[in-house]
Amino acid sequence: MSDPQRTVFAVLNKDFGSLGEAVYFLSGCAAPHHFFVPSRLFPFCDVAGQLSRYDTLAEVESAIRAERPRFILLASAYLLQVEAPSGDLGLRRLLACAAELEIPVATTDPFYTYWIDRPWLSPSPGEALPDPFVQKIEELSQRLDFVRRLPHVLPHPPRSDSPLCHGYFPPGCIDSPESISEFRVRTQRELADTAPLWLFFLGEVDLQRLEKNASELFENLCMRVREGLLAGRHVHMVAPERLASALNAVFRRIDGFSCDAFCTFSRFHQLMMAAELVFSWHQFAFSLTHRYRHGLPVIFFDRGHMIELPGLHERIQRHFFAGCQILFAPYTRPLDAAKLLQHAVRQEQQMTAPYLAALRPLACPEDVISAIPVASHG
Question: CATH number of 177-356: 3.30.70.270, 3.40.50.2000, 3.20.20.70, 3.30.300.130?
Fold first, then answer.
């Protein structure tokens, strides 16, 4: 049996959601944490635990041999392999090293198992695959096949009874009302505004998709900001630099608006938990799960980039939201603050209990780590 006080490694890819999921999983693990963070993400990674910047997985492999951790979490092995140059053997060598040293390894899963199963990739005769994005996933499927054989840790009920799938729910992951109130007080102090906060956030992948009609996006976004201000709310936007700069140019002299061109993990979490309403363009952003667990409402301006994969979107939704209904308010339509706040009350009443009921039976991360065997990798 492994020493529970030996360090647990978390090897991150470049995705912000992977950082959030790794922190969430390790919050249920008593052992010391050592995060290996790629250079792009490192400036935003202000999380508890030891941090090491890396540029190649060979650097992580050297650290594994030197420190011999108790367990290695890849967040996510799929994205680490997708981001690697074609034919890169870094991940295979890391897994072989872990097997040699008898260190168990698991990966998080940003829905790649749904993609690789790909029953939705069955176009009618004469019909082309619907999007280059889909074609890229099909091309990657063979590269990712060895990752599928790793144990998977999932922050929701597994969609299969495979022994490789481990759902988890960290103990103590529900903040007290007092903690949430403190998030709000601190945020109001930092924004120098006591008005209730509406948080808009848009990630790079969805921005690239929406930029196909950039003028429509920006015009509608400016109107939604103004509607929030007219409703007496402080509107804060988190978005890539080019969009943040354009919005600041329009609203920099207007009280009640602020904007971040991305921000640290802890600041984003604080904003997420402090907001009266959160508006997102991506339905399956991991950061939103913190609000669902606490009965805090989320409004979707768009269904996100996964809507382009026929049939896949619905299958993910059943697991991600535990079958609960969510609200869409397309960003191209005016916001009705009164109706949105009515929905917020309904969402708290109707979604929180069944959502938590689906999560509470899951194992704690400490038990998941103990259940994952050492396997032959490579």
Answer: 3.40.50.2000
